[in-house]
Amino acid sequence: MATTDKASPRDRLLDAAARLCYRDGVSIGVEALCREAGVSKRSMYQLFGGKDEMLAASLERRVPGYDARLTHPDPQAPPRERILYVFERLEQDSLDADFHGCPFLAALVELKDPGHPASEVAREAKERLAHAFRTEAERGGARDPELLARQLMLVFDGAGARAGARVERLADGLATATAATLCDAAGLRR
């Protein structure tokens, strides 16, 4: 369905890429993206130079919302609470009928090329989350903050991928409970 709003062609392309790539994967064709955006292929190539650059720009545009969504609203909250909040948000998001997992992980898995511009954006987004986990683990006194951050990323990405594939339901709090168990085992203060 082509968009008819007053957004610029660039914004319409980025919105279409975000929607279609999240729903159908990054292999979506340029024609489908342009049709969805109501923008000619010529305009797309003038604005972005190619699909790869458009995908990267679309993912980059999602980063602030992704980061904000996973950041605890209280900057003074204890580290454990800040970590578990991320998993609570994942569980809430997974209940949405349109949930397909983490768009950044999906891009990394589908593209397979670490040098692809969209892969670089996606990897940076995932690294920021790992850094946030590591920072909170350090603040909370975890014995090995790096290991805990890696474990939490595995749970986050695995739970999101399984829920996005509809082979796991997160409504029962399994992801948060698993993260809490890891925090306890790592010696993170309550």
Please give a quick description of this structure:
This protein has 190 residues and is an all-alpha fold. The protein contains nine helices and no strands.
Question: How is this structure best described in words?
Answer:
- Helix content is 69%, strand content 0%.
- The protein is mainly alpha-helical and 190 residues long.
- The longest helix is centred in the C-terminal third of the chain and has 23 residues, at 117-139.
Query: What value does the Rg take, in angstroms?
Result: 18 Å
Classify the beta-strand content into a percent band: under 5%
**What is the CA–CA distance across the termini?**
49 Å
Poorly predicted ranges (pLDDT <50, ≥5 residues)? Answer: none
Strands, count:
0
How do the SSEs run, as a string of H and E? HHHHHHHHH
Number of helices: 9
Percent of residues in helices comes to 55-70%
The largest sheet, given as strand count, sense and whether it forms a barrel, is: none
List keywords for this structure.
190 residues, single chain, elongated, mainly alpha
Topology:
Elements: H1 9-24, H2 30-37, H3 41-48, H4 51-69, H5 79-94, H6 103-111, H7 117-139, H8 145-164, H9 174-185
Helix pairs in contact: 1-2, 1-4, 3-4, 4-7, 5-7, 5-8, 5-9, 6-7, 7-8, 8-9
